[in-house]
Queue: 2 jobs
Job 1
Amino acid sequence: MPLEVLQFPDPRLERKSEPVEDVDDELRELAREMIQVMYDEPGIGLAAPQVDRPIRMVVMDTDWSEEGQDKNPVVMLNPEIVSRDGKIVWEEGCLSVPDFSAEVERAGHVVVKYQNLEGEEITEDVTGLRAVCFQHEIDHLDGILFIDRISRLRRSLYVKRRKKQLRLEEEPASLGS
Ligand code: NI
């Protein structure tokens, strides 16, 4: 069955995910499927809890764009930010937050540590979009969405709009009558 990307306000997006202990074939297959979903959607990052697997795994490809051909997906297990400094404001969107984007302030420079599927410990020192993406995806593992990091007013306007949209989807018959 193809993976389904959960969408706000699905409460499963608010769960805190568990560390990955073992790499087995099932996990490798999940990583492959998540990469496919990321490219299909399209997106530049996807966290396992977004596809209803509450484990600390993220796939990311910040070099890729819809037009570009170079694909360089990275699978990260148990990623954590070991240091952060500076400041960056980036217009963010999310596959789990339909029809919305907003400027979010985050650390402009982070050092991130994670394991890959081969069990190696990787450290990345990143800025710009890649720093933003790491922080956004690691937030997913802790049940946090980017709309939790914008002003309360902007968030509540989005929530209102989203709920209205969902109501309309539920009652298609009321539209034409
Ligand atoms: Ni996201």
Job 2
Amino acid sequence: MKIIKQILCYSLLLSTQLVHGQENQEMNAFIDGLLKKMTVEEKIGQLNLVTAGEAVTGSVVSTDVESKIKAGNIGGIFSMTSPVKIRKAQEIAISQSRLKIPIIFGMDVIHGYKTIFPIPLGLASTWDMGLIRKTARVAAIEATADGLNWTFSPMVDISRDPRWGRISEGSGEDTYLSSRIAKEMVLGYQADDLSKNNTLMACVKHFALYGAAEAGRDYHTTDMSLHRMYNEYLPPYKAAIDAGAMSIMTSFNDINGVPASSNHWLLTDLLRKDWKFNGLVVTDYTAVNELIDHGLGDLQKVSELSLKAGVDMDMVGEGFLTTLKKSLDEGKVTEAEITRACRYVLEAKYRLGLFEDPFRYCDEQRAKTEILTEEHLKLAREAAGKSFVLLKNDKNTLPLKKQGTVAVIGPLANTGSNMPGTWSVSADLVKTPSLVEGMKAALGKEVNIVSHLGSNLTDDPILQERSTMFGRTIPRDERPSDTIIEEALNISRDADVIVAALGESSEMSGESSSRTDLNIPQSQRRLLEALLKTGKPIVLVLFTGRPLTLTWENEHVPAILNVWFGGTETGKAVADVLFGTINPSGKLPATFPQNVGQIPLYYSHKNTGRPLAKDAWFQKFRSNYLDVSNEPLFPFGFGLSYTTFKYGPIEMPKTNMSKTENLKISVRIENIGQYDGEEVVQLYIQDLVGSQTRPVKELKGFQKIFIKKGESKEVDFMISEEDLKFYNQDLKFISEPGKFKVFVGTNSRDTEEAEFELLD
Ligand code: NOJ
């Protein structure tokens, strides 16, 4: 039986390969034929990606788009939406340009299209791979229903620096978790066939190491050892490519002295030769032009460098369009290099089915029926609820009883435009319910909700004004802050419980939104202090796009629910969790430090030659600080539940394994609390002895399980040699026999542990 199955599987694999091979042959023949007909200018035209500017996501906007389409000077357009507009632009290309080559239409569809899901850092907090894939699938359905066929997502940059505003757009600090998520996002967008009218081409970004910007300052230099790069920062990009992502975006930063967008080693040696990537390489917004400021030469020179490094498509800057012909005439680039880039653009269009039917994504009926559906909103509410992380819950402050009056106070209480979060550029902000509206809709008349804006976001009008990239303002109240606080207290007077909706506005994180102070702004701290003096139970509902420093809040506030930016259904989902319809299960994908001085702080650090003794706070001549312990405030993987999960000891039938065996690790987990709940069981490994230093812990597996109260479940993990491998100093991916520690627990700090050996 097994043999028959194997034969069947093998012949299925063979026939799929044959089909793909045949498709490739057909594609190659078609594109060869087309390339023969193209002039050099037309080939260069295909390398030009312009913005229609519906969402302004960079500092310059493209001009004369229509005449450029007619002249064959555009390969792709982004930030244009609706089947009507896209059909119109496509018609111009199809009927008025000489070769009638269709245009590709892109957009930043990052965490949902119209139905907005939690920001990526929030989605990562769900640790729910099936759910994450579904959110990407829904985003693809909605975006393609509105005419699009390309998204600039997933963003898979590892970041260990919450000062960097774009930490909100990725999956946090961990290589393994980010790689798993990268794969799910690609599969959600592209599904099994890119040419279907409801699948979207994914674009992995920002290649590479954009999240390791020095000092957390956006667009800043990255300088990193190859060893760290290969082991910690590159795997998520590779995972997305292995999952089939058909495009990749180069990053703004330089890497060890060479900007990514002109980095031949990165884009050709690593990406094309080692990783065998056969999709489209596009730059980030004006990244070619920015090579001038990086100090590499004038526009002609940098365009030449970028093309030769391996870039195929130039976003917005038009350096390729305006200089490559001249460089060709002067012998600085070859026609073969231009043709190579053009071929990748044409292949993307072919795979999307645009040559077969350039209007396959322009179905007005779909735009009416497949966007913001009830089913999509239901998923958004589920995803939001699962993304929230319960950081503190003293004396079971939560869940609240569904009765009485709740006062919802603070600058994030009544602002609908902030709920979707950064990079939800296609969200309809006017129609997005605020936290208070969402809570009221979820609770009906069961609970009386009173609310107040309560305070200014910050004392600093300039910071407030700067934090409005996509027009998501939080209006300022110019009255004295004591008057505003007094008003908030009056509203809270008759309430049974106070929900303080505080934190960051959605544009205090995201692109070009780095910060050096990660405390809740002073004006909000003062409000919180005043609210605490009432003696009423207080829940801090914390909005943020990054780990904040919450030492003071953690000392004083009984309950803290971190809700990131939860998307369209934030308000309802907050009500679900506060009132216990949903038991929180989110876990942090990034460490929350005690203070900014500890950054970068991450769980998978090295041991050093002078580690601190276990449980010690400070020891002279050891690796630590005088003024703060090495511990985070909340570790990676942390998140509470309304129930309590008790972990049994690690069970292993064997304590050694050969390189061809799998080692079974089991743990029994018991729900000893009062609620049914979901738990993310996390497995970490430490390589104890080796040829080079290795992290004290590395995530290598996790399972999200549901356990009813009073019940228990055994969770099994299988460790294989693959999990024990790393890139050594020669960049060989190897395992080294010897002792390992394995940890299983509810977060990266609180774990059961055991040892095993990998045999030679
Ligand atoms: C700049 C951002 O860095 C990138 O993530 C985005 O996709 C492009 N702009 C296009 O909007």
